[in-house]
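User: Can you recover a sequence for this backbone? Please restate the input before giving your answer.

Assistant: Of course. Working from this structure:
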């Protein structure tokens, strides 16, 4: 619906979540890039903590941990544009413009 004399305003928001080969989960919608980076790092650190726990479990139980070493290395990347943990869950920030 158009209202005479009212301009359309565009506003940027940042979607923060994580994706994998068969999923995409948006966890936060942030108004600023700084807030989005903070939320991105929260998700990344949670995944990193879980990966370290799984590595310890797998190493003790089965004696191999190559995949978990790779996941831990990938999740240590703090730049959302450079992080790549495929095919495992990877946190992301996506900029969107709303009207």
């Amino acid at each position: 619906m158009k209202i005479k004399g009212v301009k359309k305003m565009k506003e940027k928001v940042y979607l923060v979540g994580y994706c994998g080969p068969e999923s995409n989960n948006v966890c936060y919608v942030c108004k600023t890039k700084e807030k989005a980076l903070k939320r991105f790092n929260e998700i990344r650190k949670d995944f990193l903590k879980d990966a370290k726990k799984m590595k310890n479990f797998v190493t003790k139980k089965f004696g191999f941990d190559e995949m978990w070493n790779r996941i831990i290395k990938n999740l240590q990347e703090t730049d959302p544009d450079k992080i790549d943990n495929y095919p495992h869950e990877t946190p992301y920030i996506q900029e969107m413009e709303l009207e």
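That completes the design. Residues 11-98 form one domain.
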